[in-house]
């Protein structure tokens, strides 16, 4: 099982990371939001690669 974080700015993917456990991936997700969340056009997604790339979390939320 692997969890992937992806940081995109606009349509360009600029950073990726993979972790074997969800707890670590979620901590990294929160850290990336704190470190890079203020950049215009940024999107950070956490996906479950073992489940076909299902998106677990996405920032900012689609509703905002």
How does this structure look, described?
The protein has 64 residues and is of the alpha+beta class. 23% of the residues lie in helices and 44% in strands. The protein contains one helix and four strands. It has a four-stranded antiparallel β-sheet, with helices on one face. A hairpin with a 5-residue loop joins strand 3 and strand 4. The chain is globular. The protein starts with a strand and ends in a 5-residue tail after the last strand.
On the 0 to 100 scale, the average pLDDT is: 93
Shape: globular
Summarize the amount of helix as a percent range: 10-25%
Number of strands: 4
Structural class: alpha+beta
Q: What is the topology, as strand order, of the major beta sheet? A: 2-1-3-4
Provide the gyration radius in Å.
Answer: 11 Å
* Major sheet description: 4 strands, antiparallel
Low-confidence stretches: none
Distance between the termini: 30 Å
Count the DSSP helices: 1
Which key phrases capture this entry?
64 residues, alpha+beta, 1 helix, 4 strands
């Amino acid at each position: 099982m692997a969890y992937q974080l992806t940081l995109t700015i606009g349509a360009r993917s600029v950073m990726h990371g993979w972790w074997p456990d969800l707890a670590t991936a979620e901590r990294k997700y929160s850290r990336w939001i704190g470190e890079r969340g203020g950049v215009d056009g940024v999107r950070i997604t956490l996906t479950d690669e073992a489940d076909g790339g299902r998106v677990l979390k996405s920032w900012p939320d689609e509703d905002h």
